[in-house]
Amino acid sequence: MPAIVTKGLTKKFGDLVAVDHIDLEIEEGELFGLLGPNGAGKTTFIHMLSTILPSTEGTANVAGSDIRESADSVRASIGIVFQDPSLDNRLTGRENLDFHGRMYGLTKEQRDERISKVLELVGLKDRADSLVETYSSGMKRRLEMARGLMHRPEILFLDEPTLGLDAQTRRSIWEYIRMLNDVENVTIILTTHYIEEADYLCDRVAIIDYGKIIALGKPEALKDELKGDIVSLKVGEPEKYLEVLKGNELVEDGKIVDGLLHLRVDNGEEAIPKLIEVVRGRGDQVYAASLRRPTLEDVFIHYTGRAIREEAPENIAHLRARFWGRR
Amino acid sequence: MTAQAIYVLWLRDMKWFLRAKSRVISSIATPFLWFAIIGVGLNSMFQPEARYLEFMAPGIVGMTLLFSSTMSGISVIWDKQFGFMKEILVAPVSRIHIMIGKVLGGMTTAMLQGALLLLAIGLFQVIGLVDIRTPGVVQLLQIVVFMVLISVSFVSIGLALASVIKDPVAFPVVINFLIMPIFFLSGALYPIGTGALPSWLSSLARVNPLAYGIDGLRWAIYPERAQFSLWLDFGVMLAFSSVMIILGGYLFRKISA
Predict the structure, then answer these.
(1) What ipTM did this prediction achieve?
(2) A273 and A143, same structural domain?
(3) Is the pLDDT of residue A324 over 60?
(4) 3-state SS assignment for residue A66
(5) Contact criterion met (CB < 8 Å) for B86 and A89
(6) Can you give the residue range of the structural domain that contains A245?
(7) How far apart are CA A40 and CA A209, in angstroms?
(8) Does residue A306 form part of some domain?
(9) How far apart are CA A157 and CA A80, in angstroms?
(10) Chain A nearest-CA residue for B255
């Protein structure tokens, strides 16, 4: 049985359609990623699945229960780590876990057993009795993940689990996420706008934009769909050369991203000098050239014509304000 | 499971209370200063028979309960601010049980502070500054009942306001605006039932529920100056606290993180 099934799940905030008729099935035990720019609707989507937000339309079944009809049993069988911190800094790590255990109705024995187990898993055993306000941001994240697992949920939601962490801490959080997925045998659904995170961690990825899933599959499979290599060229008049080079037999597809020409070619190493020749033949210069294998970012660009990172910050602020305006 | 959730919400308030020593001291410092400075000062102005400090003693306990109870709503505001409210609200616990846990936590916190004030008054008694009746079992029970009724009422009001306000700066401002007139019109500082008071002031005080709560406390420690009948005090406070719990519960139901 799948861990999650959604049919036409939709959320509207006034005129804004944050999540637009999403149909999705997530298997038990999967490490599933929702990848998309800020404001794409990822958080709204998982907030509906975790019954924090009511849906506007459609249905969803989470761990065998309907999110509308049996919200309480959904809540009891999921764990969630929010994007923003949600720990009590004035309690110790252990007390935060104990609070959670009691809120979820665990007995004394269950709590003791789980607290020591999850602290062990996230490597916080020796700091368990310090106040959370003395923790580093990476430790807080790990404690939140541990807390999400306290009551043995079938599904764990992680909303932007490494947002705001430095590169090294991010790496270590990734290893913890993988290990939790293995050891605890819990289905994990994470949202992220970090390409590498989705690529490195997830069994399957749904790329989401403007509330819709635009691509779905294993990261490798998604990248393989874009055959060949991506060549980026910096030229004086990208629009002009986009037209010119799209006509070239070597080029399968082309787009302008951040003022650079992105060209999809079969064999990048051989194509670069030939493409440069074309530009020079017209009396212009190529100022820089680079070559890479397609990433999930290119998959996103392929479907949307935009890079994930180029989302305007004021749009994010607007969406967040709208969302949290319910407070 | 429900009892456990209510217990842990209460337990968390107790831990906060015990760990925030400076907050505890500052919250009882204000009523104590009222009693020790304003009370002693005014006392010297009146004839000794007026026994102003004895009159003021139950009022100052009521003041402590009023301030501490309404302010307990601030913990909800902070929980919203620091995200912990999401952790609470996503748990499989109904809003009404969360509300009950918060009411019990706020009530206990307020009553502990009220008890500290009673101890301070007892200290005044020991050094001979006041001469109140030493409460017996019945009076102690009476004190506890009225302390419970006062704190439950005003904790509910604090929670109701905290459910609709999200700005941690605005909350104390609103609370102060609300509790100052309630305190001044409560009969804590001067008698409200005598003919000497202008009728507009006396009428305003008579619609203030806290006046009955403080009168109930006064029955226990300085019954000579009680204004209303004890049963009226009890009835009004019971009705008021019930209505406030329902109002608080209604607004808290709609709380979001």
Answers:
(1) 0.90
(2) no
(3) no
(4) strand
(5) no
(6) 227-293
(7) 5
(8) no
(9) 5
(10) A327
